[in-house]
Specification:
Oligomer: single chain
Helix content: 55-70%
Mean pLDDT: 78
Strand content: 5-15%
Largest sheet: 4 strands, antiparallel
Distance between the termini: 93 Å
Number of helices: 20
Number of strands: 8
Structural class: alpha+beta
Number of domains: 2
């Protein structure tokens, strides 16, 4: 115990001396964390504190080797220790590199995997898991489980490093509980390692606790996460594997939980999975009105509580331990729900998201039946057939009235030129009218095609009717973008609400309607032949001439 206490004091002293020096390095070479809309600090702060923690930890172990006590002699350099040190150096280096010159997240992830792979190659491997009556052997998948373990803890500590003193304090409490477990299990070597880590963090916290004068940075947070992960796997060689892994998971429960759910939350709201945000647990506490200091102290208290529960659980090791974990899980659920963390995971939102996927994929019968309407519309060979499918679509979506207005087109096929010209003029006036004048122009500009639900035949719709939903859908020629018509859909919302997928399906239908209408109007189906009027043709020719003159002038 004396050796453990001396190691703790040495690591604290080294960290106290090295942290100000690390801060000067950050200021001298520009590794400063500047305030922005995602950060909560208000002044530029060095993010090189991880250098002090890293050096204090390994220097303490080097000093410990000189004590020549029974405990210090347990520190030997073997393949596991070598791979642990090399992996720690890799992950710490890439973190510090990112502190000085921001790196792409994929590059950082690649080096994290590399560090975990080096540790695995040296013998730090999770081959199996035994805890609370549960047992599994990973076999071939042990590499992937080990790498995932390292990545989980590395990024958990990095993610929670958003408030002054938060990440360091959580890891310090987790390290102290691992010291206690090492002493209880008689594994003094690992008690020494975790004690050196805890002391290195405690000395740093003097400068990092609010208001912080220096931050861990990615170098520090990556190293702390890697150290806890690696030392826990090393300890599993002399203690039950489940105990060595479950205890740090419980102690680091808050950042681990946040790390696992953050990508899911971002995915559900359509954001990039690795894009930082201000929706983590500590941000939620700030939004609830807690100050930064109180939020950190509150999470400290939760971490201590979780650590004590973990110690009790691994010592009971029976059905009561499982019951304790269940009670803890329920309490954690209500606490996190109180912090509004599950806003995006409510049953209603998840159900709506799943039903949207099912509908879009065509698994619902209503989507498949509407797809049949789209196909028949796209294959229509005449205006009459096209209109029949349009009426089917409007009826399918619950609309009460449907009107089709065609602009500058001769659908009487020359049978009555005067009537055709009158319809064209009236129709053009309709298209150019202000919204409040639309229904005044309807008598002068009757639609080319019209349908009304039979049970609504006695109702006359007015523009400002309460509950009236009116959608005016412009139709364009897909080949040249010319506007050649308008489809107007009307619905009485008092009779029935608009269906959940109506607007999306209308847009799908429009993409089927426009090409079919373009084919019919250009005579591609062999049944109709339509032409633009002479004025339109003359305008197009004039535009072409203007373009040609502009090109010639530019070349000259």
């Amino acid at each position: 115990m004396t050796t453990l206490l001396v190691i703790f004091l040495v690591s604290i002293c080294l960290s106290l001396v090295l942290t100000p020096l690390a801060g000067r390095i950050g200021e001298r070479f520009g590794a400063m964390d500047r305030p922005n809309d995602r950060k909560v600090h208000e002044v530029p702060t060095p993010r090189t504190g991880g250098i002090a923690v890293f050096l204090a930890f390994f220097l303490t172990l080097a000093v410990c080797r000189m004590f020549q006590t029974d405990v210090s002699r347990l520190l030997i350099i073997n393949s596991e220790a070598t791979s642990f040190i090399l992996g720690a150096f890799i992950v710490f280096t890439v973190g510090v590199w990112d502190d000085f010159a921001r790196l792409n997240p994929r590059i950082k992830l690649l080096f994290q995997v590399l560090a975990a792979t080096v540790a695995f190659a040296g013998g730090l491997e999770i081959e199996n898991f035994h805890a609370l009556g549960f047992s599994v052997n990973f076999g071939f998948f042990s590499y992937f489980v080990t790498v995932f373990w390292f990545l989980l803890l590395i990024n958990a500590v990095n993610l929670v490093d958003g408030l002054d003193g938060l990440a360091g304090g959580i890891v310090m409490f987790a390290s102290m509980v691992m010291v206690a477990m090492g002493i209880m299990e008689g594994n003094l070597m690992h008690a020494v390692l975790f004690m050196a880590l805890a002391g290195s963090i405690l000395g740093f916290l003097k400068y990092n606790f609010a208001p912080a004068r220096i931050f861990l940075g990615d170098g520090g947070s990556y190293f702390l996460g890697y150290a806890v992960a690696g030392l826990a796997v090393m300890e599993s060689a002399k203690t039950p594997v489940g105990v060595a892994l479950v205890l740090p998971l419980i102690a680091l429960g808050i950042p681990v939980f946040d790390t696992l759910l953050a990508p899911v939350r971002r995915f559900l709201i359509g954001r990039k999975i690795f894009q930082p945000d201000k929706r983590h647990f500590h941000h939620r506490l700030l939004q609830m009105g807690l100050s930064r200091r109180k939020a950190v102290l509150f999470i400290y208290a939760l971490t201590v509580l979780l650590s004590l529960v973990g110690l009790i659980t691994i010592n009971v090791r029976n059905e009561r331990a499982g019951l304790l974990l269940v009670v803890l899980g329920i309490a954690a659920f209500f606490l996190i729900q109180k912090a509004n963390y599950f806003n995006y995971f409510t049953p209603g939102k998840i159900y709506g998201w799943i039903t949207d996927i099912i509908d879009e994929a065509g698994f619902s019968s209503t989507r498949r039946s509407f797809l049949d309407v789209q196909i028949r519309t796209a294959n229509a060979s005449s205006l009459d057939e096209l209109w029949r499918q349009t009426v089917r679509a409007a009826n399918h979506l619950g609309f009460d009235q449907c009107s089709l207005y065609l602009v500058n087109r001769d659908f009487d096929n020359g049978q009555d030129e005067n009537r055709t010209l009158e319809k064209q003029k009236a129709r053009q006036a309709f298209e150019n009218a202000w919204p409040e004048e639309l229904y005044k122009n309807l008598r002068a500009s009757p639609p080319d095609r019209f349908w009304k639900r039979p049970e609504m035949s006695g109702k006359n719709f007015k523009l400002l009717d309460t509950g009236l939903f009116r959608l005016q859908l412009p139709l364009f020629d897909p080949s040249d973008g010319e506007h050649f018509g308008t489809l107007v859909l009307t619905k009485d919302m008092h009779r029935e609400a608009l269906s959940r997928y109506a607007l999306g399906r209308i847009e799908h239908f429009r993409h089927s309607l426009e090409p079919a209408l373009e084919n019919i109007m250009n005579g591609k189906t062999g049944e109709f032949s339509f032409h633009k009027n002479e004025n339109d043709q003359h305008d197009l020719e004039e535009k072409d001439k203007e373009k040609t003159r502009a090109k010639m002038k530019a070349n000259a």
